[in-house]
Design goal:
alpha/beta, 2 domains, 270 residues, Arc Repressor Mutant, subunit A, Rossmann fold, 40% helix, single chain, 11 helices, three-stranded antiparallel sheet, seven-stranded parallel sheet, 21% strand
Length: 270
């Protein structure tokens, strides 16, 4: 991480903003789970007091728990990590899921993509298709698809949610409810047999419900780390999902539940 930091430091003319440093600390915590103040101070060439202030802010935002001399990351379903961190997490799993998703979309279809980091991986893969109509509340997906020709790419508009590239709120929901699309690909923070499909906050959960109400088929793209986790806000019951896309075979309890409820589950063959 130190080598990467110093390259970034040079790119920024020798100055790293506090918010950028905190993002790198979170990224480091995703990999190591725990950090020490003294190590971070040395890595970022700042004082230990500066690092303590960074960790104070991250704790106030609910991302970490401070300990004597350091901190560890919160990994509860209710923690909504910044998009910058989320899109670098479980990358291989998201790529595998995106490979499955692209095979389910026919040329000429209309598709909803939500504001999740997984949706960005799916968008990248979908660029091999022709004549798609894509409606999304993700600013990153809009940017990714900006150079595609022969498509119709639409934004829901709405309010930009703090710490993310997702557009949410009543205006975005009203736009989503106007259209009728063939398929929706979305993700979540938690998938649990009793808790259902859940997300970290009401804004994201409500937006996904609005999009789902206008889609003929719902595809839940979720990596294995989300199974058996319950987050704050319920999006929907599992049985409302047509298909679950994941990177590995779920355990027998989920396989049996999916079969009972008529939910297809697709994962790569070993």
């Amino acid at each position: 991480m130190a080598e990467f930091y110093y390259r970034q430091k040079a790119d920024y003319g020798g100055i790293m903003l506090a918010i950028e440093r905190r993002h790198y600390i979170l990224n480091h915590l995703q990999e190591k789970k725990r950090v020490l103040v003294s190590d971070l101070a040395q890595e970022f060439a700042v004082s230990e007091e500066t690092i303590r202030r960074d960790l104070d802010k991250l704790e106030q935002d609910g991302y970490v728990v401070k300990t004597y001399g350091g901190a560890f990351i919160k990994e509860e379903g209710n923690v909504d990590l910044p998009y910058f961190v989320r899109k670098k997490k479980n990358v291989i799993a998201k790529q595998l899921i995106a490979d499955i998703a692209v095979g389910l979309v026919e040329e000429g279809e209309s598709v909803f993509l939500d504001g999740s980091s997984t949706a960005l991986f799916i968008a990248k893969k979908l660029k091999s298709k022709k004549r798609l109509t894509v409606i999304t509340n993700s600013v990153e997906v809009l940017v990714e698809l900006a150079d595609v020709t022969g498509w119709t790419v639409m934004s829901t508009g709405g309010m930009l949610k703090e710490g993310s590239f997702a557009l949410v709120g009543s205006r975005a929901e009203r736009v989503a409810e106007v259209y009728h699309v063939d398929k929706m690909f979305f993700s979540c923070k938690g998938l649990d047999l009793s808790g259902g499909v859940t997300d970290a906050n009401d804004l994201d959960a409500s937006m996904k419900r609005a999009m789902a109400s206008s889609a003929k088929k719902l595809y839940l793209a979720v990596d294995g780390s989300k199974f058996s986790r319950v987050s704050f806000a319920k999006i929907m019951s599992i049985e409302k999902v047509d298909c679950v896309l994941t990177e590995q075979k779920p355990d027998d309890s989920y396989a049996a539940y999916f079969q009972e409820k008529g939910v297809t589950c697709i994962y790569p063959e070993v």
